[in-house]
Amino acid sequence: MSDEPKTVFEGKHVLVLERDTWQYVERKKGKTAVIILAVTDDDRVLFVEQYRRPLDARVIEFPAGLVGDEEGHDDPEETARLELEEETGYACRAVERLTSGPTSAGITSETVTFFRASGLEERGKGGGIGSEDITVHRVPRNTVVDWLKRKDDEGILIDAKVWAGLWWLDIAQ
Q1: What is the DSSP letter of 60?
Q2: CATH number of this structure's domain 31-170, picked from the four choices 3.40.50.150, 3.40.350.10, 3.90.79.10, 3.30.70.240
Q3: Helix (H, G, I), strand (E, B), or coil: what is residue 78?
Q4: Extents of the domains making up the chain
């Protein structure tokens, strides 16, 4: 195996790299993402829904964001706090790192860290910033699986990381 990848293509935000004939995508900035698992005091799980251009579809996800894609935001915990409030309108007292790993190891170098947020306080409507068009969903924890199945039946995609996050919320406490 070679150590240094070769650049095959350079776009505005991504690189296509090749290492030992294997091509993969890497972001120019923000190579690590955070996912925030947040449950309100009345036991509602916070989800976001937004249109994702690569899929040409709406997707249900946990609040999330890229670490280091904005100048001065290189700390994963800080990014988790900021993204939670930007996307959902909820601030949190604390975040706890749960686990990290690759998002799709066969096509991208991106990794993701799951955080659990606690001490939530609603401070705004959320919805994201700029061109983000985020819908916030507050789903009672005991109805989450049925709700996700209904959304799937409606043709809304469910990010597979949602299922992993639910495991962390319910089983690994």
Answers
A1: E
A2: 3.90.79.10
A3: helix
A4: 1-30, 31-170
SS3 for 114? Answer: strand
Name the helix (H) or strand (E) containing 87. Answer: helix 76-88
> For residue range 89-129, what is the model confidence (pLDDT) as tens digits?
999 999 999 999 999 999 999 999 999 999 999 998 887 77
Q: Please, what is the angle between helix 144-153 and helix 160-170, to 10°?
A: 170
pLDDT by residue (tens digit) across 5-55?
A: 999 999 998 999 999 999 999 888 878 999 999 999 999 999 999 999 999
Query: What single-letter amino acid sits at 172?
Result: A
SS3 111: strand
Please, are residues 113 and 97 in contact by the beta-carbon 8 Å criterion?
Answer: yes
Beta strand pairing call for 32-38 and 111-118: parallel
Distance from C-alpha of 151 to C-alpha of 144, rounded to nearest angstrom: 10
**Structure-block tokens of residue 106:** 């066969």
Cβ(81)–Cβ(92) below 8 Å: yes
DSSP state of 132: -
Query: What's the distance, CA 129 to chain centroid?
Result: 15
